[in-house]
Every structure is written in structure tokens, then in C-alpha cells.
Design goal:
Elements lengths: L3 E7 L13 H7 L7 E10 L7 E5 L2 E9 H20 L10 H18 L8 E5 L6 H7 L5 E5 L7 H4 L5 H8 L4 E4 L2 H15 L2 E3 L2 E4 L2 E7 L6 H11 L3 H10 L3 E8 L6 H14 L7 E8 L6 H21 L7 E4 L5 H10 L2 E4 L8 H9 L7 E5 L12 E3 L4 H13 L2 H17 L2 H13 L1
Parallel strand pairs: 1-2, 1-5, 2-4, 5-6, 6-7, 7-10, 11-12, 11-14, 12-13, 14-15, 15-16
Antiparallel strand pairs: 3-4, 8-9, 9-10
Bound molecules: 6-O-phosphono-beta-D-fructofuranose.
Length: about 450
């Protein structure tokens, strides 16, 4: 059988396997990687120059190979093109997009450097699975160096229609780079359709059904929604409720309902709108004052990118406003923290929450929505309030779906969730739970690898 080679910008350190991890990507893949797999990517370290040789580590039969990024490469590739051009663009935030030619050159240069380091470790019949927007040009860079085996790419974030993509100066180069893969995967049918439209418009190749026909090859495009280890997360959540940590949380609530949100501190997640929605709940439905607290965990992220610094300042101010306005001496409406919380603790917090508030302005999938559902007690489940613009909404029509741009809609959804009868909560949760147990991380991996092997 062909060896699987995974390439992603972030590589989980071997010792952290199965433990806390920030990105959904790493968590989903960790449950799948078999002994013998090679996992290659950035070490997370920034040094004077980008390494030309990998640092190797082993863990449970998996080989991890990582390289450091030089400071200039980090600025142009990670802070620059990946997170200041592509990230805002692919989340429909053209106003936040910053483009510089030298950043795009740095992006190509790092992909070429990754290909240089990876190539000597490859065997002819390896199957390579590349992840996410940082590494779109990697297949072309490997092909240019003579690799002829199968290479697949999966985009974890949204894709955009041609009228949005055209704002990116190197739109054509990017589309052509995607056409160097054998399989390209997207989270939803919508992203897949947008990709095919863009391929038609920008790549210069013909599109035939779900395939792009390049010079002598066919690129197959698929929709393959990512999932979680639903049974595992559900078990962790159930176990976690007996811990001292969760007991302390319950004590602090003193019988009040908990609404919870947890994600990276990122402008795609709709945090200011959500804060305003919560303030409107307390304003328009004053009977909920003292009866509910919102715990917002917004783990600091990409702190070298200016827009993230600005967002943090804005949230500090908004959190202060809300608490100044509504707090009473023995009740704080908004508990806002920017630290990360361990997965096991998070699972327990989700389980005791009455509301899971997941309202990104745009999101590839959003695994927090899936984790919240898996964590609930089916006998007395909490309610998921979900943005229509998260990929998860395509599978979750039994969530309370909202337009995250409308704080009043968020307030009304919270009011409805707080008053929702048990039978309705149970019925909605049962449907969501089926979806989460059906589309798991293992299924996601199998579907992609089967498509790549075909
Ligand atoms: O979900 C998109 C993603 O970029 C993942 O690839 C990554 O693990 C996560 O967000 C965290 O972001 P970063 O790697 O920039 O810290």
C-alpha cells in the first residue's frame, strides 16, 4: 500500500498527540494517521533563515519532519500573503485584504523551499495530502522538481466566487497552482461550486463536470466535509463533568444558564457582532438579566497581523462596555478570556452550557459547532445557535440558524433558546447528533484518501 504523506503548515508535536491542540485540522487528522505516515510542515519557530534540512521526530510510528521559517519568510509568507491577503479574501473581507507583490513572492519562495526539503524524503509511490491555503503552490513546486506521484489538496477555509477572487492580483496563478493537484477538496458544495466557477474563469483550462481538464491530466474537485471524533469527544465531555474544574464553574454560575463561545480571536468569527447581540438580549429581554452568563473564550491568534491587534482592542472595549453597563455586584454578564482552554475542560464546559453560540461571519466548516453537539447530554441538551455562513450550516438545519450580521437576530435566537421547551431541545439535538456521528473525522479522511487513490 502507498505511504501517506501529510503536509500542513502547522504540525502537531509528537508528544502532544491526542492532547490539547488549537487547530481543528490537526485534531481531525491525528485520529487518522497510521504508523508509517510522514507528516511534514513548519515547526512553528522563526529563526534567522528558513531551514534547508528537516528536523525529524517520531511518535507512535509516525515520522514528523519540520522546518523553521526565516524571519523574512515568516513576514511575507505567513503574516503577509497567507494571513493578510488570502485569509481575508477567502473569508469575503476584501476591505481587510492587503496585497504586496513581495509577499506573494515570499509565499511562492517558501512553498519552493518546502518542496526542496520534502522531495528527498519522498518515494515514488507516496500519496501526498496537502492541507490549507498556506500551501496551494506546493504541488506545482514538487512537480517542477520531478515528483510524478499523486498529490491531493484540501482547503479548510471557504472558497469565493469569481467576483471576489478577481480582486486578488495573482488569482490566475493561484488557480493554475490548484490545477497541479490530482484531487482538490472543499468543505461544502457551495465552496466546490465556487471553485469550479473560478477555474472556468481564471485557470485557462476547460471544466468538465466536477473536473478541470489540464494539459493531459484531470483534476477532480470534491466536497468532503470535515468532522470530529464524535464518540471520543462525547466521552471526554461526559467524564469531564465530574471534575473539580467543572464543579467550580457550576458553583460560580449559582444556577444561572451558561452560554458559551470558543474560538481563535479572529475577525472571521463575528465576535463584535456577537457581543452586541448579547447586549441586545439583555436590553430587549431584561428578564434574562442575572439569569444567563456568556463565557467567551477567544484564544489569541496571529498576533503579528495588524488586524488581529485591532480586533483585540475593540473586543477589550466592547467587553468593558457590556460589563460596565449590565453587571451587578454579584453577577457579571460577560466572562471574556483570551487564553486557550484545554480540550478536556472545554468539552465539560460545552456539556453544561445551555447555549452554544457559534456565529462566524464566514467559516470553512467550524468544528466547535460539531464539538458542542457531541458534548451535550441527550437527555437535557443545550441549544446550538449557528451562523448560516459557517460550512457546518449545510449539515445542521436543526440548529437555530442566524444571520451573524444582525445582532437583533442573535438576541432573539438566544431568547428563544433560553425559553425552548425540553422536547424541542431534545428533537433538535437528536438530529444534530446523528449528523455529527455520521460525518466524522475518520469518514472525512477516508473519503479524501479514497478519491486520491482512485
Ligand atoms: O482553520 C484554518 C487554520 O489556518 C488552520 O490551518 C490552523 O491550524 C488554524 O487555522 C490556526 O491558525 P494558525 O496556524 O495561523 O495559528
Amino acid at each position: 500500500m502507498a505511504r501517506l504523506v501529510i503536509v500542513s503548515n502547522r504540525v502537531p508535536p509528537p508528544r502532544a498527540r491526542g492532547a490539547a491542540s488549537a487547530g481543528g485540522l490537526a485534531v481531525a487528522l491525528q485520529s487518522f494517521v497510521a504508523p508509517g505516515t510522514l507528516w511534514f510542515g513548519w515547526s512553528g519557530r522563526v529563526t534567522e533563515r528558513t531551514s534547508s534540512k528537516p528536523r525529524m521526530a517520531e511518535g507512535q510510528g509516525v515520522t514528523y519532519a519540520t522546518v523553521d521559517l526565516g524571519a523574512e519568510d515568516y513576514d511575507r509568507f505567513y503574516v503577509g500573503f497567507a494571513n493578510s491577503s488570502l485569509w481575508p479574501l477567502l473569508h469575503f473581507r476584501l476591505g481587510l485584504m492587503r496585497y504586496r507583490r513581495e509577499d506573494f513572492e515570499g509565499y511562492l519562495a517558501v512553498n519552493a523551499a518546502f518542496a526542496e526539503v520534502l522531495l528527498p524524503m519522498l518515494r515514488e509511490d507516496d500519496m501526498i495530502w496537502v492541507h490549507d491555503y498556506h500551501l496551494i503552490p506546493l504541488a506545482a513546486a514538487l512537480r517542477a522538481r520531478g515528483f510524478t506521484g499523486r498529490i491531493g489538496f484540501f482547503l479548510h477555509i471557504p472558497f469565493v466566487p469569481p467576483s471576489v477572487l478577481e480582486a486578488l492580483p495573482p488569482a490566475r496563478e493561484l488557480l493554475q497552482a490548484l490545477c497541479a493537484y490530482d484531487v482538490v477538496g472543499f468543505q461544502t458544495q457551495t465552496h466546490l461550486a465556487d471553485f469550479l466557477d473560478c477555474a472556468h474563469r481564471f485557470s485557462g483550462f476547460a471544466v468538465d463536470g466536477d473536473e478541470v481538464v489540464t494539459d493531459g491530466r484531470r483534476v477532480r474537485a470534491i466536497a468532503d466535509p470535515i468532522g470530529i471524533d464524535a464518540a471520543g469527544f462525547s466521552r471526554i465531555a461526559a467524564r469531564s463533568t465530574g471534575t473539580a474544574y467543572i464543579q467550580r464553574m457550576k458553583d460560580s454560575l449559582a444556577g444561572r444558564a451558561l452560554a458559551i463561545s470558543a474560538e481563535r480571536l479572529d475577525y472571521s468569527k463575528g465576535l463584535p457582532n456577537r457581543f452586541e447581540g448579547f447586549a441586545r438580549l439583555l436590553d430587549r429581554f431584561p428578564q434574562q438579566q442575572r439569569r444567563v452568563s456568556l463565557l467567551q473564550i477567544a484564544a489569541r491568534s496571529r498576533e503579528d497581523v495588524e488586524e488581529y491587534q485591532a480586533l483585540r482592542r475593540e473586543l477589550d472595549r466592547l467587553a468593558g462596555d457590556i460589563n460596565g453597563r449590565f453587571s451587578q455586584f454579584d453577577w457579571v454578564p460577560l466572562r471574556y478570556m483570551t487564553q486557550t482552554v484545554e480540550r478536556t475542560k472545554l468539552a465539560g464546559l460545552f456539556r453544561i452550557a445551555r447555549i452554544g453560540l457559534v456565529t462566524p461571519l464566514r467559516d470553512g466548516m467550524n468544528l466547535v459547532a460539531k464539538e458542542f453537539v457531541a458534548a451535550q447530554d441527550p437527555a437535557d441538551p443545550g441549544v446550538l445557535i449557528l451562523s448560516r455562513f459557517a460550512g457546518a450550516a449545510e449539515e445542521f438545519d436543526q440548529a437555530v440558524l442566524v444571520n451573524p450580521y444582525d445582532p437583533d437576530e442573535i438576541a432573539e435566537a438566544m431568547q428563544a433558546a433560553l425559553e425552548m421547551p425540553l422536547e424541542e431541545r431534545q428533537a433538535r439535538h437528536a438530529a444534530l447528533r446523528r449528523a455529527v456521528f455520521d460525518v466524522t473525522a475518520a469518514r472525512y479522511c477516508n473519503v479524501f484518501v479514497d478519491a486520491l487513490a482512485a
